[in-house]
Amino acid sequence: MAKESVKELSLKELEEKLRDYQEEIRNLRFQSVTGQVQNIKRRWFVRKRIAQIKTLLHENKLGLRKLPEAGTLKKETEPVKEKISKKEIKAKEKKANKEKKKLEKKAKKEKNKKEKKEKNK
Fold first, then answer.
1. Residue 109 structural domain
2. Is 50:18 a contact under the CB 8 Å cutoff?
3. Residue 11: inside a domain, yes or no?
4. pTM for this one?
5. What is the CATH number of the domain that holds 14?
6. Buried b (16+ CB within 10 A) or exposed e, 25-39
7. Can you tell me the distance from the alpha carbon of 116 to that of 98, in angstroms, rounded to the nearest whole number?
8. Distance CA 61, CA 37 (A)
9. Could you tell me what percentage of the chain is helix, strand and coil, using 3-state DSSP and rounding each to the nearest 5?
10. Distance between alpha carbon 57 and the CA centroid of its chain, in Å?
């Protein structure tokens, strides 16, 4: 599951994930007691996910956050990417290179100034 994907889940999906993670944390506890844990950081990750999901559910309950209904897609609200021509891409790259050169030149001047000050001391 991607980093931000928990916020995009519906109420029903969050409740299912919460149950799954709670079961997984229970299993990880048993594994740690018996010494069978393969990934120690997984327990920390699962606890963090449980906290995130519980926070989202509580915010929904208080009305602070509106969770999407089951079956609705977030992709519908995403902006459509514009098609950019090769000419525009080259122009942007050229502009970025010019700015980069200016910054390098400025940094070089600053460095030279510092060296001159150190020589004069």
1. 85-121
2. yes
3. yes
4. 0.54
5. 1.10.287
6. beebeeeeeeeeeee
7. 27
8. 36
9. 75, 0, 25
10. 20
